[in-house]
Amino acid sequence: MPLVSMRQLLDEAAKGGYGVGAFNVNNMEQIQAIMEAARETKSPVIIQASRGARSYSQDRFLYHLMVAATELYPEIPVAMHQDHGNSVATCKSAIEQGFTSVMMDGSLMEDGKTPSSFEYNVKVTREVVELAHAKGVTVEGEIGTLGGIEDGHGAGGSGLEHLTDPDQAAEFVRQTGLDALAIAIGTSHGAYKFSSKPTGETLKMDRLIEIHKKLPGVHLVMHGSSSVPKDLQDVINQYGGKLKPTWGVPVEEIQLGIKNGVRKVNVDTDNRLAMTGAVRRVLAEQPEKFDPRDYMKPARDAMKKVVAQRMVQFGQAGHAGDYQPLPLSEMAKWYK
Ligand code: 13P
Predict the structure, then answer these.
(1) What is the pLDDT of residue 287?
(2) From residue 301, how far is each of 176, 298, 331 by CA, in Å?
(3) C-beta of 154 in contact with ligand 1 (< 6 A)
(4) Catalytic residue among 83, 105, 151, 179
(5) Which residues contact 41 (CB under 8 A, 6 or more apart)?
(6) Closest alpha carbon to 24 in 192, 222, 267, 225
(7) Separation CA 184–CA 160 (nearest Å)
(8) Ligand 1: which of 146, 251, 268 to mutate, judged by most atoms within 8 Å of the beta carbon?
(9) What is the reported pLDDT for 116?
């Protein structure tokens, strides 16, 4: 099946009451890891690329790897999503390159660092909605700003500085007509999210529930949702890494989010940790090895394991065959 619209994946997830993991990729092994996990668990999936990933892998390599994924795993619905587009031009180029979904992150200015005004955010998101929906492409927007920095994108901080205001979120959805809304509830990108296990003071699940009550029909997106498991940290440190003690978002909190309107769950860091730990282990235990396959294969296997576990935990497992994906041309008609 061709790459599909993220909107349809999320609508189906809402019907089924589950979440869909959106996993970041930069290369072939990561795409393979996700597709193998999706096949094993029979999961629909969102594969996403940041601006940094697009420039690292180059758009055409990335696109054709994604097409290969759809050919080799025809039973899996896959949406290809631009993560944190910083401008209308970035989203436009993603659509031209074959992405079936884009995020216009107008919560920050084009520099990807400076928090923007509400009016600016509405203007750029609305513009992307118009050009994307005409082609059947899905749009995610963001209101409030996340903490941390990833691939040079992010406001920094703990994520508590610019939490999403529920009334403003409702107004933002009304004025933009977007498909999915990323909210800020204290999560941040990267490995260093919390300095101890998060509490209601640092991870504002009550805020998420409030937003969902105000916008029950809107697909919410939880960014910065890696759980940063201790066992993955330990493997890295055991083999010469230098991670400082840190905590991520517990899976139970994500599951609570899924019960309250979260349909897209962004995970990148956990996969980075899994791959790095596996590479370190091989290089430390077998220093005579120098064939990249000797460490990339265990790295791919380690990522697959994490992704498959999340697919089960988010509830998307078993849902790959539930529906017939619509072509983007049908989605374009539907938006009209
Ligand atoms: P993590 O750093 O928690 O994996 O978050 C990734 C993310 O939100 C990508 O947009």
Answers:
(1) 98
(2) 41, 5, 35
(3) no
(4) 83
(5) 308, 311, 312, 316, 317, 318
(6) 267
(7) 8
(8) 268
(9) 94
Rounded Cα gap, residues 209 and 164, in angstroms = 12
Q: Is the distance from the beta carbon of residue 225 to the nearest atom of ligand 1 less than 6 Å?
A: yes
Other Cβ atoms within 10 Å of 168 Cβ, number: 14
DSSP 6-48: HHHHHHHHHHHT--EEEEE-SSHHHHHHHHHHHHHHT--EEEE
So what's the pLDDT on residue 146?
Answer: 82
Residue that has been written with the tokens 């996993």 in this structure: 23
Q: Is 162 helix (H, G, I), strand (E, B) or coil?
A: strand
| List of residues 6+ apart from 118 with CB closer than 8 A | 168, 171, 172
Helix (H, G, I), strand (E, B) or coil at 128: helix
CB of 54 sitting under 6 A from ligand 1: no
Predicted confidence at residue 144, as pLDDT, reads: 92
Q: What is the pLDDT of residue 154?
A: 81
pLDDT of residue 117: 95
Q: Measure Cα distances from 198 to 17, 150, 155, 157, 313 in Å.
A: 25, 21, 20, 16, 19
Pairwise CA distance, residues 154 & 148, whole Å: 6
206 given a catalytic annotation? no
pLDDT, residue 224, reads 97
List alpha helices for the chain, DSSP H.
Answer: 6-16, 28-41, 51-57, 59-72, 88-96, 118-133, 166-176, 205-214, 230-238, 251-259, 269-285, 292-314, 328-335
Which regions of the chain are under pLDDT 70?
none
In 3D space, the residue among 224, 228, 125 whose CA is nearest the CA of residue 175 turns out to be 125
